[in-house]
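User: Here's a chain of 284 residues. Predict its fold as tokens.
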Amino acid sequence: MQNATITVILGENAQPEQLEPLSRAAQEHNTHLIVMLLCEVPPIAVYSIGIGEFSTYSLPEGWQADVDDANTAVEAQRGKISQYLADQGASAEVRAVCGEATGLRNAVASAGLVCDTIIIGDDLRSDERLFNDVLHAALFESSAAVMLNAANNPKALSPQSVFVAWKPGVPATRAIRAALPVLRRAQDVTVGLFDPILSASQDGENPGSGLAAWLNHQGCSVAVQQYPSGGQEIGTAITKRAQETGAGLIVMGAYDHSRLRETVFGGTTRTLLEQRDWPVLLCH
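Assistant: Prediction complete.
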């Protein structure tokens, strides 16, 4: 991603060495890194004493001390990572964000308004709720593309081969637009359609041909492939076909169905979010 600005979201215990692959890739492609260290603190628990206008409020004992300790710790990590990236010669800035869950979501959403891509670090997966909060803020409340499984895989930023999981719709189109710099530089791009419906009211009589023509005009080397799922879950089929084509990145739209439906019944997006083997670029 040449001349891009990438926001990297990491947990409070992230170590400088985790950023070594991204630091090298950033220098090669003149990319600016914004590293955000997230530290969640307990919500303010205010106790009310008394009744009406004569009531008073007090914080629980030890709460402020815990918050101060958390701020001190994450600020120390910020300093270490800042120094590490400066020593590496990378164009970067490091921010420490300490607050309640809502504040962290808002910080991620705001960062996504002024960058090209948000990379969510694998270390955040250890806290499923925080990971989901950050992911949904990036997908639904920002304008940036979201990448998973890419923090330790610098080739994900400039893969030689890309697999595009195409389903006509706004999410997939946004993902492809966001990935255009990568697609132009890739040696080959495979556009995969699964169980296409060959009718004018659905995928068209020649599914994927319009997308291929657009990408070819953009300078991409494109091949369209139609795959039968054979009853296999589509998300699993996508990763298998990506492996067959030797793709270093999967590009797809996220949450073509509602979040509630995906959460309850599962779906393609959920499968791609949970897998950790393939870098994936998503947009909603």
